[in-house]
Amino acid sequence: GAGVSQSPSNKVTEKGKDVELRCDPISGHTALYWYRQSLGQGLEFLIYFQGNSAPDKSGLPSDRFSAERTGGSVSTLTIQRTQQEDSAVYLCASRSYRGLGLGNEQFFGPGTRLTVL
Amino acid sequence: AQKITQTQPGMFVQEKEAVTLDCTYDTSDPSYGLFWYKQPSSGEMIFLIYQGSYDQQNATEGRYSLNFQKARKSANLVISASQLGDSAMYFCAMREPGTFGNEKLTFGTGTRLTIIP
Fold it and tell me: B48: Cβ–Cβ under 8 A, 6 or more apart, which residues?
């Protein structure tokens, strides 16, 4: 089956514009994560979805960031009024649950490289 | 708060030699999981190997093995018989149990491995 896909692969935007990043998880994976990878901060957790609910939004850096997931599948990460410090690679990951004590590893997409000018 | 430390920013290794990538972690929770991911220049994170805190034996996956020393809180990745295709960034990550099945990962800063022909 297909892996996690993300679109667009690259996005260049002007400061102050809104952007939407899309993630298509592996079919049947109920858990979905967004991470951000930047030179200064490394890999950081942003938000976790279980189904369509987001019980952990603790990593969202500001209220300009929001995310939703519909149909237990596709997720969209929205950044409003983008700033230059938002420039990073945004990675999406999904996982199934195979059992307690097992790896339950996350499978990552190729990422969206966001550049804010 | 959990923490992952990778002290080797970069390593150069001759092809066919074995290489050890260091990872130490800090957590107060007795139940946790440790992962290694590979990130080639293409950007996608590739899962390599998993070690659970209660696992009695060190994990192995093909040429990858994990040297898990629980008392020292270290989980070093060993790659045997290195190949040119092993050149990539390698990330150590830890998962702690959370509420609502959240298994978000905390990543180290990574080690860039370069295999020399």
Answer: B35, B36, B37, B38, B61, B64, B77, B90
- CA distances A86 to A15, A35, A78, B29, Å, are 10, 12, 12, 32
Radius of gyration of chain B, Cα coordinates, nearest whole angstrom? 14
* Interacting residues of B56 by C-beta distance below 8 A, sequence separation 6+: none
The mean per-residue pLDDT over the stretch B53-58 comes to 91
pLDDT tens digits, B60-87: 999 999 999 999 999 999 999 999 999 9
- Name the residue in chain A with its Cα closest to that of B36: A105
Q: What is the pLDDT of residue A82?
A: 98
**Which residues of A are less than 8 Å from B105 in CB distance?**
33, 35, 45, 106
Q: Do B100 and A33 touch (CB under 8 A)?
A: no
Tens place of pLDDT for every residue, chain A, 117 residues? 589 999 999 999 999 999 999 999 999 899 999 999 998 778 999 999 999 999 999 999 999 999 999 998 999 999 999 999 999 999 999 998 766 656 688 999 999 999 999
For B53-110, strand residue ranges (E) read: 60-61, 64-69, 74-79, 88-95, 105-107
Going from the C-alpha of A44 to that of each of A33, B59, B93, the distances in angstroms are: 11, 26, 11
Question: For residue B54, which residues of chain A lie inside 8 Å, CB to CB?
Answer: 101
Maximum distance among all alpha carbons in chain A? 45
